[in-house]
Write a structure and sequence with these properties.
- By secondary structure, this protein is α+β, with helices and mostly antiparallel strands.
- Helices cover 66% and strands 12% of the residues.
- The chain folds into two domains: 46 residues, Ribosomal Protein L9, domain 1 (3-Layer(aba) Sandwich), CATH 3.40.5.10; 57 residues.
- The protein is built from two helices and three strands; from the N terminus they run ββαβα.
- It is rod-shaped.
Length: 114
């Protein structure tokens, strides 16, 4: 009985229940040759492929973090603008009410003859 040799591979994509993208793991030779390789899910760890993939993965993670930060910042800015607009609208309404109240008081005083 011939045992298959375990080959260290670097996963290029997430494989459910096995590994995540960028991980280095030894897998059975047949599994790599017949499943992972044809689907482009992993590459053998030769000539620094693992290092290159880790760098690629780290760069992608950093870009995602920056994009998330920009999105959150944009959401905060939009929310702040909406609050400011709402505050301005409420201030205008309050000003109109106070003008109307003053006008009403003047009319009442004029009708009383005061």
């Amino acid at each position: 009985m011939i045992m298959s040799k375990r080959i260290p591979v670097v996963f290029t994509k997430d494989v459910e229940g096995v590994a995540k993208a960028g991980e280095l793991k030894p897998v059975a030779g047949g599994y790599w040759r017949h499943y992972l390789l044809p689907r482009g899910l992993a590459v053998p760890d030769r000539t620094g492929a693992a290092r290159k993939l880790r760098e690629m993965h780290d760069k992608q993670t950093a870009q995602q973090a920056v994009a998330k930060e920009k999105t959150e910042e944009g959401i905060k800015q939009v929310a702040a603008r909406r609050v400011a607009k709402k505050g301005a609208r409420q201030a205008k309404k309050a000003e109109k009410k106070s003008r109307a109240a003053k006008k009403s008081d003047k009319l009442k005083k004029a009708s009383r003859g005061v």
